[in-house]
Specification:
heterodimer; A: 114 residues; mainly beta; 4-stranded antiparallel beta sheet; B: 114 residues; 0% helix; 56% strand
């Protein structure tokens, strides 16, 4: 079974802190993604990566950065957390094939910024 | 740009009845994939079903089927014989050749009543 794990289920941080959210997958997937989920808005793409050290901005990259030094690990970084970044963060991964293929999701991290 | 619209914020269905969750999409790309995911209260995203734009037949997976009407740009999810465990948020999503990440709708919360 594909497994995508995230470092924390719940996280509470203070405004201005630097926050790291870690995601690890064990299926040798090339693609990895970070989404943010807010009520009434569905999931929105923050960043994705299709290879080690490669990244592309998604729909809402402002205030976030990412790092992918190893194929299995994709980190989301909030350089200076703000209250409007309080949200559920979901990591996903998939193979990079020609045809469309499903993404496998981690359990999510619910981040609260005070 | 891609867009997914789910117009039903919430739905109720009686146990053992069938229910249809609506999804319309917009893309100018002739090649695309449509997905449905289920998110129980525990938060994980569970892949349910996939339909490719060139697939001749509607996709089915057990009690799930996708009513794909290409000309109307709709991809409704049909759940037959609803069970209490079907109570969850349901998200419609798509990707096309221009974007390898998923674009999600805002979701429909389904509640199955005994």
């Amino acid at each position: 079974d594909v497994k995508v794990t995230q470092s924390s289920r719940y996280l509470v941080k203070r405004t201005g802190e630097k926050v790291f959210l870690e995601c690890v997958q064990d299926m040798d997937h090339e693609n990895m993604f970070w989404y943010r989920q807010d009520p009434g808005l569905g999931l929105r793409l923050i960043y994705f990566s299709y290879d080690v050290k490669m990244k592309e901005k998604g729909d809402i990259p402002e205030g976030y950065s990412v790092s992918r030094e190893k194929k299995e690990r994709f980190s989301l970084i909030l350089e200076s957390a703000s209250t409007n970044q309080t949200s559920m963060y979901l990591c996903a991964s998939s193979f990079r094939r020609v045809s469309y293929n499903e993404q496998f999701f981690g359990p999510g991290t619910r981040l609260t910024v005070l | 740009a891609q867009k997914i619209t789910q117009t039903q914020p919430g739905m109720f269905v009686q146990e053992k009845e069938a229910v249809t969750l609506d999804c319309t999409y917009d893309t100018s790309d002739p090649s695309y994939g449509l997905f449905w995911y289920k998110q129980p209260s525990s938060g994980e995203m569970i892949f349910l079903i996939y339909q490719g734009s060139y697939d001749q037949q509607n996709a089915t997976e057990g009690r799930y089927s996708l009513n794909f009407q290409k000309a109307r740009k709709s991809a409704n999810l049909v759940i037959s014989a609803s069970q209490l465990g079907d109570s969850a948020m349901y998200f419609c999503a798509m990707m096309d050749t221009g974007r390898r990440a998923l674009t999600f709708g805002s979701g429909t919360r389904l509640q199955v009543q005994p």
